[in-house]
Design goal:
Length: about 325
């Protein structure tokens, strides 16, 4: 297993007092994370172009029905893939300890994901990932900050609604981009460590860290490499495959294979969570999570595990409960 390199010492460029408010910290936002945004820009524009070409060509041949049906299939075919995932999760979750999902809950979650997926993968991440820069103004000493860590095939644009709300409340935060996109989860420890250092340097306090999906695993892996429990105030995970996921059996990338059920990578370090650390996790999981199933694999022994009903994987990040939990942790008295 490749251990992350030691993060470089803080320099003047890392000092929040030495840069204007809202300047992205240490280039994490602007120098990293463009690869995925460009890839998703290409795929989004390619799909729109293909749908438009099909529609025009079929229409000119006097086949308006085929024109509309073909364009719709190109643009909304992903909904069929999501439907297949829901069939699989319903079957696998029958043997799980999570509350069973009704047909209506599965249909509701599927519809929510059909809406949420293009909003994230075709808009926020490819075109709006830098809309909200990291917020580390010079006057946040003594105020608890936040580190936001996205999941697989995502970037910081996933957190745009969160960053907008945090900025409006004056909460300091850093939202990372995890690259290489298809590399080892171990490699993300350095990126997370830099973000934690920056928020701590600006506020003087350990941050609350929020991880969605693979991001929660990356946070746990990063913390497992440190003996210092004081680096973190609290960790919130949302749909994180703490014990792997059935769907990862078809993964092609290194980080995807690491999230397979009982993967060698998971087994190497799964026992490193002490009871004291586990108690500082809040884990949101759901019986309609179409990526992480069995559903209880997104829970941790000793953590505060909270079930989200009738919501799918990407859409979980937009549910109010995780953000409300973050605000509660930020408002807790500083020890």
């Amino acid at each position: 297993m490749n251990a992350p390199t030691t993060p470089r010492p803080a320099t003047t460029a890392d000092d929040p007092a030495a840069r204007p408010p809202d300047t992205p910290a240490a280039g994490i936002v602007l120098k990293h994370g463009r690869a995925l945004a460009r890839l998703q820009q290409f795929t989004t524009l390619a799909l729109l172009t293909a749908a438009a070409l099909w529609f025009v060509l079929a229409w000119r041949r006097g086949e308006p029905a085929w024109a509309g049906a073909g364009a719709a299939l190109i643009l909304f075919g992903y909904a069929l893939t999501l439907a297949a995932e829901f069939v699989l999760l319903a079957r696998i979750n029958r043997r799980d300890t999570a509350p069973p999902a009704s047909l209506w809950q599965l249909l509701s979650a599927w519809l929510g994901e059909v809406v949420a997926a293009p909003r994230v993968f075709c808009w926020r991440q490819p075109f709006r990932s830098r809309r909200w820069p990291d917020h580390l103004p010079a006057d946040v000493a003594g105020r608890r900050g936040v580190v936001l860590v996205h999941g697989f095939v995502c970037n910081r644009g996933l957190w745009n609604p969160w960053m907008q709300r945090l900025h409006a409340r004056g909460v300091p935060f850093v939202a990372v981009n995890l690259e290489p996109v298809f590399g080892s989860i171990d490699d993300y420890a350095v990126i997370i460590d830099q973000a934690v250092q920056q928020v701590h340097a600006a506020t003087g306090l350990p941050p609350v860290i929020v991880g969605h999906s693979m991001g929660g695993l990356a946070v746990r892996r990063w913390w497992s490499l440190s003996a210092d429990d004081g680096r973190v105030s609290h960790v919130i995970t949302i749909g994180t495959p703490h014990h792997g996921t059935w769907l990862a059996r078809w993964a092609f990338s290194r980080n995807g294979r690491q999230m397979q059920l009982a993967s060698a990578w998971l087994q190497q370090w799964q026992g490193t969570d002490t009871p004291a650390r586990a108690a500082r996790y809040t884990c949101f999981y759901g019986h309609c999570d179409n990526i992480v199933f069995p559903a209880s694999n997104a829970t941790l022994a000793g953590a505060d595990n909270r079930h989200l009903s009738a919501v799918a994987h990407v859409h979980m990040a937009d549910r109010p409960e995780p953000f409300e939990e973050l605000l509660r942790r930020l408002q807790a008295p500083v020890a």
